Amino acid sequence: MSPEPSAELRDRPESWPVHASEDIWTGPAPFSVRRDHISAPGDPDQFGRLVLVHPGASVVLAMNEDKRVLVLHQYRHPAGRRFVELPAGLVDAGEDPLVAAQRELREEALLVARSWSHLVTTYPSPGLSSERIEIYLARDLSPAPDRGNFEPTHEEADMTVSWVPMHSLVEGVLTGRLTDGPLALAVLTVAAGGENTLSRSPR
Fold it and tell me: Across all residues in the chain, what is the average pLDDT?
């Protein structure tokens, strides 16, 4: 069997019949959980699937002229680790993911950027969650005057910031020392694309 042409190798929208849905959990968080009862097309057998309904998120790899990247050091309770991460946050209802990325860069890193490029889109856990993450490259950086309406609390109040050479991040991902998923994907995308990625127009 010949391999599929690269232009045809892509994820495709598809929707199986949903016969019933039930809410499992809703609350003050911007997430909810439901159970859908679905079937394969043309097959009468139904089965249940849990769905974590997620608003999506934006992630920013902010790189300065020396190819140093701004990273955050933040404690994440579910994983029991302090991760090296990139600025990131949830996309508000109806919000453009790029606008969300620009907001998060200002709130978490006190930076604004003149140049923005879309790097990659990912669904980190499509077997469970509808979460879609948009990752951007930000360049031509300058200090932001303030954090806007954002006031760090709890884990975010404990968050620290540092500038790390891009090659150190690549090495950290490849050796398993850095394990945050969006950071790894952003770093390896830039490393794989080289200057073509860095000069790509925003999507």
Answer: 92
Helices H / strands E in the chain, number of each: 4, 10
Total-model pTM: 0.89
Domain of residue 33, residue span: 12-53
Alpha helices in the chain (DSSP H): 97-109, 154-157, 166-174, 181-198
Is 49 in the same domain as 129?
Answer: no
Chain-centroid distance, C-alpha 196: 21
Count of structural domains, the chain = 2
Q: The sheet that has 46-53: what strands, in order across it? A: 18-26, 32-39, 46-53
Position 164 in a domain: yes
108 in active site: no
How far, in Å, CA of 30 to CA of 92, rounded? 9
Could you tell me the CA-to-CA distances from 119 to 19, 23, 145, 177, 189 in Å, in that order? 37, 35, 27, 23, 7
CA dist 118 and 202 (Å) reads 5
Give whole-number Cα distances, 73 to 18, 76, 120, 186, 200, in Å: 41, 10, 23, 16, 28
- Let me know whether 39 and 132 are in one domain: no
pLDDT recorded at residue 155: 84
Alpha-carbon dihedral angle through residues 70, 73, 77, 81, given to the nearest 10 degrees = 110
pLDDT of residue 122: 97
Choosing from 104, 151, 156, 171, which is the catalytic residue?
156
